[in-house]
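Ticket #4471: complex job returned nothing on first submit. Input attached below:
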Amino acid sequence: MHTVTRPIIVFLCLCLLLLLLFPVVGSSFYTGLVTKIMILSIFTISLDLLIGFTGLVSFGHAAFFGIGAYLLAILFGNLEQINYWWSLTLTLSLTGVAALLVGWLCIRTSGVYFIMLTLAFAQMFFYFFFESPHFGGDDGIFMLNKPQITLATRQLVDLDNEHHFYYFVLAWLVGVYLFLSMILRAPFGHVLIAIKANEQRVRALGYSTPHYKLVSFVIAGTIAGLAGFLEAAHTNFVTPAYLGWHESGMAIMMVILGGMGTLFGPVIGTFIVVLLQDFLPEFTEHWKLIMGAIIIFVVLFLPNGIAGLIFSISNRFSSRAPGGREG
Amino acid sequence: MEISFYLIQLLNGIQYGFLLFLMASGLTLIFGIMGIINLAHGAFYMIGAYLCYWLTGITGNLFTGILLAIPLSILFGYAVERLAISYLYRRDHLYQVLLTYALILIANELQSIFWGNDVHSVPIPELLRGSIQLTANQAYPVYRLFISGACITLAVAMYWVIQKTRLGMTIRAGASNREMVQALGININWLFAIVFSLGATLAAFAGMLAAPVNSVYPGIGDNILIISFVVVVIGGIGSIKGAFIGALLIGLADTFGKVLLPEMASMVVYALMAAVLFWRPQGLFGKV
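Support reply: We reran it on our side without changes. The output follows.
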């Protein structure tokens, strides 16, 4: 794990300020787009907890995003009034249970097995929703209403208002960021980081590493479910494509491009990739060719991602000795 | 339903299993020997299918189409190994996944540029067009028997090459201890290039054989890639025997799943995988 130096904290605060001010100047379209990017950022941060901190390369993380979205749509999609607190609690706990089951089976393996298994389970969920006539099949499900956030019959946030939704998602993003950085600073997080560095040694120290990995998997899965919940509430629509393995692949790409092993890296990666996905098709129909080339470039020349670049720049400005242990 | 109906399903399942074996054996060899997790394997299947469609269209005959497509696939596999995969040998699995994923995106776009996004069918040659009448209203197409025959021939040939030839000995040695093979003075780069283009060609050949049955369409390689992963995981990574058993199991499970449980056919395969892994996390023939 890198030590977050002061210039980086300043940089992050500036980014947050920009995000806070954006809806004031941004058009409706871009406010919606940035909302979507922030939702996906929550998803990629949770993937980074697995890839960048615990060393578990999950190629099926989109499954939990999709499960979160589907649970909201299936359980609450037809209701006139969706109680936010109830729907969120139920969606997240059921996604957590799904992550627990999948994780319990996958954690027993490691390395390539783990990659292939997570991929295969994600495909299983994909086909479950894709083929099931009860859950909309390949058409997906439209939702009538958004969740209502009320406290003692007073409406706190109006999710139908796009600015409200924007700040609501931003608050969640900051919340997830702070939650994960808290976890990672706690002894539990140190064990996860140590597992990534050398699992055998951690086990020799007496830690039951499978339990730690499983808890990490469940936390990441639940946060991914939260992102899915927000996405379904944002678009009022869920589709099996949310669970597809291309989503998982692009999520890994976002984490690596941004810089794995840092919490802000995935956010940067998500912004870049989604904006590229948005702009490139305007130039050419075959934009995925360019996307593929960019991925190859990142793998060969930028393995630590943009966060890696930022760290090397910040170390130059920082008064501290060249810090930033790899981890 | 009659017994002949189940017989046909059995034959279909075995035939699908054989095709999966061609895919999975390449995948498992590439992993076992080179330590590379190759997502682009499905892309080779897709390229094989499209080459077959294209060359059959030009020459007017499936056999000449396949004969011309095989050397192209070997060349293509070799080029991909040299230009992309060879940079990944000392890298983490994560980067292998990402780079080969990028190769899929590129291959799919190239396919769409060269051959468009339409669904194409490939004609079955006159010689294999008939079907064998089983009962009054049940028949089995000869071409599917031809697929099974070709796969068996190839499997036997592979067995012979791997068990009886010097190259096969090197491959087996590479699978069990890569460093030792290098220490004995065998050119490992050469071995990797051969194994990778061999695996790629097997996948492409599976695509060529399947083209007349399944027709040729964009994204054709994606689905079979994931199923091949399931086969490899069930059989145990690096084990050709495991790939064979796993492929037949999955072929049969998928075919009978579609008949008996049509609403959740695609899930049967994954449920089988979960069951096997629950029992043996390293796969049927995998080493711990």
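The longest strand of chain B covers residues 131-133. Closing as resolved unless it happens again.
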